[in-house]
């Protein structure tokens, strides 16, 4: 902790000097920067702006040049357990061939490329290849529907899509290319000139000559060296879509230099990554955690990591523990929702209990995506970490690029359920609605008072929305608003995140906007008149999605209600993706509204939880509806 305090003091005394020093130590620059931060156009901050670099050079070539060419970069385990590895030299060659292939198709610096592929070495190489030629990638999680994929392709104006014939998860073959075809057929994606298709299963898929290209054929003719495109530090490395409280998902834009710095630095300090570690982050590359702690951070440091195609419950719920044993994983990073479901599975079935496995290789455990409840924390600590391994509970967001509040392992004294203290250099604080600091022990709104290198640069194509969402006038446009509530412990100053303060739900660690799900429901124009979506606590998934729906026909009951609920669930699955399917759907003649016509969501939240309504309902236009909604189910 003395070292931690020293770093915090260094950042406090000379903020720019601190970040400048780290950017020189961790990132290799083609042209060194002379200026650390440019805040003249706040909140559009620029970091290291006159420096140039290439992110893929930093993650690959640099390690080969350091003598790590034969070191394993990626240990890939397929759904069926088959293992393939790639050394740094091999990953560099694969990335270069793909980068050359993209260039041969006319893809160049500044173009956007959408990647819709499952967990694979190809997926990581595709991201690295985009970075190599200065194309901005936007990875779309393989669980999103054709409609969601279309929206993202259209918003980015991508010139190419990289995908695979199929994906394999939990023993099942699922479509990828067919969904890309469907997405492109929906229209609005005329910018797409090419679809690159990797062969995963060899399944028969549609092929449009001229547009579609088999990846293996494209790569066969390419050289395995490729001159990197040296880009300015602020060049957009990627766009990643995430849910906000209103409107459609927003394309969070990240820069190259500052992002790479924080991805590398947090991997180094939060995970204490050492040369002989086997690091495993179980996230998907479709989420920000997969970007920072699979594709970029560990590779920038020359680490060895696992990339896993499958799911934690196949062939059984011992899969994670079996893989930790098999690959001698030393640093393991996963989500509370996975831990909770594996606790349930282990309690129900001795055979998949972690005690059946040798987990002695582990030295550090991590948690991300949602608050970890103390009971899950204790189980993780005892049964997975053998009571020996520190747990780093890392709070951060798509927008922050890397860890913001987290313990440093072995240093920070741990408290279950608390993400403890800000990462050195991050000015996290808790304020009230007017932006005034609140004293410890009193909850408030989580903000970050100073810009940091890996922060979101803008929302793609919508700078006004960026300003409004993250630098609202309430705080005089000065502080970054995370969208979470938090409280600091009176004695230790430790942070505990109390959850989102906006209309964003966190279901199994996935961010879902209630408005997005409502729009999907009401887009079923034949059936649905009106819909309101709220969250309720769930033991396994953290939060569960509850939809209150008014149909264009009389309120259904019994079997008919079940049938329509199933139809609407599938509809939402098709519109957004299976992760957005409501767990509960209740039908009403109406929704509780104020006299001015506003839906009173806080009442719906109480009903969804099964709580008695204690709130003031005097402004309600139609109080009788509450009883009806409470009865349904
Ligand atoms: C990395 C990631 C961000 C939201 C965030 C917060 C929640 C993430 C957390 C946590 C409590 C943690 N969250 N980590 N809450 N403790 N350790 O998850 O990004 O998908 O953008 O979600 O997730 O609510 O605002 P993203």
From TrEMBL:
Positions bound to CoA: 169-172, 289, 508
Modification after translation, per record: Acetylated. Deacetylation by the SIR2-homolog deacetylase activates the enzyme.
Keywords recorded for this protein, A-Z: Acetylation, ATP-binding, Ligase, Magnesium, Metal-binding, Nucleotide-binding
Parts of the chain that traverse the membrane: none
An annotated GO BP: acetyl-CoA biosynthetic process from acetate
Cofactor(s) required, per the database record: Mg(2+)
N6-acetyllysine: residues bearing it: 598
Catalytic activity annotation: acetate + ATP + CoA = acetyl-CoA + AMP + diphosphate
Lineage: superkingdom: Bacteria
SUPFAM superfamilies xrefs: Acetyl-CoA synthetase-like
A GO cellular-component term linked to this record: cytosol
Residue ranges of every copy of the AMP-binding enzyme C-terminal domain listed in the record: 516-598
Positions contributing to Mg(2+) binding: 522, 524, 528
EC number: 6.2.1.1
PANTHER family, A to Z: ACETYL-COENZYME A SYNTHETASE (PTHR24095), ACETYL-COENZYME A SYNTHETASE 1 (PTHR24095:SF14)
Function description: Catalyzes the conversion of acetate into acetyl-CoA (AcCoA), an essential intermediate at the junction of anabolic and catabolic pathways. AcsA undergoes a two-step reaction. In the first half reaction, AcsA combines acetate with ATP to form acetyl-adenylate (AcAMP) intermediate. In the second half reaction, it can then transfer the acetyl group from AcAMP to the sulfhydryl group of CoA, forming the product AcCoA.
Family, per entry: Belongs to the ATP-dependent AMP-binding enzyme family.
Identification of the protein by name: Acetyl-coenzyme A synthetase
Organism per entry: Methylibium petroleiphilum (strain ATCC BAA-1232 / LMG 22953 / PM1)
Lineage: Bacteria, Pseudomonadati, Pseudomonadota, Betaproteobacteria, Burkholderiales
Gene label: acsA
């Amino acid at each position: 902790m003395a070292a931690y305090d020293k770093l915090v003091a260094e950042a406090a005394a000379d903020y720019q000097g601190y970040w400048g020093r780290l950017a020189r130590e961790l990132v290799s620059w083609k042209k060194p920067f002379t200026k650390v931060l440019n805040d003249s156009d706040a909140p559009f901050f620029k970091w290291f702006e006159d420096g140039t670099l290439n992110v893929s050079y930093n993650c690959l070539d640099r390690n080969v040049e350091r003598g790590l060419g034969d070191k394993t970069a990626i240990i890939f385990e397929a759904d069926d357990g088959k293992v393939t590895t790639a050394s740094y030299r091999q990953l560099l060659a694969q990335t270069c061939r793909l980068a050359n292939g993209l260039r041969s198709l006319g893809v160049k610096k500044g173009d956007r490329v959408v990647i819709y592929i499952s967990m694979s070495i190809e997926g990581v190489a595709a991201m690295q290849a985009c970075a190599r030629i200065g194309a901005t990638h936007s990875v779309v999680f393989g669980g999103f529907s054709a409609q969601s994929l279309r929206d993202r392709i259209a918003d980015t104006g991508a010139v190419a899509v990289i995908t695979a014939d199929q994906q394999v998860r939990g023993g099942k073959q699922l479509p990828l290319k067919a969904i890309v075809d469907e997405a492109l057929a929906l229209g609005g994606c005329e910018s797409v000139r090419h679809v690159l298709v990797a062969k995963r299963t060899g399944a028969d898929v549609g092929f449009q000559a001229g547009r579609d290209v088999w990846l293996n054929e494209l790569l066969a003719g390419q050289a395995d060296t490729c001159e990197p495109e040296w880009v300015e530090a602020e060049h957009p490395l990627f766009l990643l879509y995430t849910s906000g409280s209103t409107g459609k998902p927003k394309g969070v834009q990240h820069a190259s230099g500052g992002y790479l710095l924080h991805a590398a630095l947090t991997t180094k300090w939060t995970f204490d990554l050492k040369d002989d570690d086997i690091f495993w982050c179980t996230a998907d590359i479709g989420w920000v955690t997969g970007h920072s702690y699979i594709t970029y951070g560990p590779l920038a440091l020359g680490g060895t990591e696992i990339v896993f195609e499958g799911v934690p419950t196949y062939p059984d719920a011992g899969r994670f523990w079996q893989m930790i044993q098999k690959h001698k994983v030393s640093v393991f990073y996963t989500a509370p929702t996975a831990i909770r479901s594996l606790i349930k599975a282990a309690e129900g079935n001795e055979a998949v209990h972690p005690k059946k496995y040798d987990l002695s290789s582990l030295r550090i455990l991590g948690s991300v995506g949602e608050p970890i409840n103390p009971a899950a924390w204790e189980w993780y600590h005892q049964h997975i970490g053998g009571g020996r391994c520190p747990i780093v509970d890392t709070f951060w967001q798509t927008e922050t690029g890397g860890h913001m509040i987290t313990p440093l392992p072995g240093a920070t004294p741990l408290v279950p359920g608390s993400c403890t203290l800000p990462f050195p250099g991050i000015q996290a604080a808790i304020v009230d609605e007017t932006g005034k600091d609140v004293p410890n022990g009193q909850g408030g709104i989580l903000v970050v008072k100073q810009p940091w290198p890996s922060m979101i640069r803008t929302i793609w194509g919508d700078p006004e929305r960026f300003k409004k969402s993250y630098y609202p006038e309430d705080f005089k446009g000065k502080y970054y608003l995370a969208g979470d509530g938090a409280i600091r412990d009176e004695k230790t100053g430790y942070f505990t995140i109390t959850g989102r303060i906006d209309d964003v739900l966190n279901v199994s660690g996935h961010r879902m906007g209630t408005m997005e799900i409502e729009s999907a429901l009401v887009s079923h124009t034949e059936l649905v008149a009106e819909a309101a979506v709220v969250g309720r606590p769930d033991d396994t998934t953290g939060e569960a999605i509850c939809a209150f729906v008014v149909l264009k026909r009389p309120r259904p009951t019994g079997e008919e209600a079940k049938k329509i609920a199933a139809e609407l669930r599938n509809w939402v699955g098709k519109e957004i993706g299976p992760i957005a399917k409501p767990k509960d759907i209740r039908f009403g003649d109406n929704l509780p509204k104020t006299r001015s016509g506003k839906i009173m969501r806080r009442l719906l939240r109480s009903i969804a939880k099964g709580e008695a309504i204690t709130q003031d309902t005097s402004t309600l236009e139609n109080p009788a509806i509450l009883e009806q909604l409470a009865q349904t189910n």
